[in-house]
Task: inverse folding
């Protein structure tokens, strides 16, 4: 039995209305309605999605933090790839 206090299940049938959430595309700034129909949300298109992905792949976008283990290990080897003795001079 369904009473007025029982929430109705989400059927997925959303339509754009004045209460719909709108966001700006992170790549070009176009307005995107946040709905199931916006396949690339928060991006306005596949093109903007791929531009952003390319920025991550080429390290145009980075999450700040401590250096990776690879960066730390690189400091321990000289130009020829041999281990650098931290106690040696030069």
Result:
């Amino acid at each position: 039995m369904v009473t007025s206090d029982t929430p109705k299940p989400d059927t997925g049938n959303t339509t754009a209305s004045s209460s719909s959430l709108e966001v700006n595309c992170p790549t070009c700034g176009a307005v995107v309605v946040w709905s199931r129909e916006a396949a690339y949300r928060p991006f306005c298109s596949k093109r903007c999605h791929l531009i952003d992905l390319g920025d991550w792949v080429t390290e145009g976008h980075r999450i700040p933090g401590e250096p990776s283990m690879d960066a730390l290990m690189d400091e321990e080897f000289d130009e020829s790839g041999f281990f650098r003795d931290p106690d040696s001079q030069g």
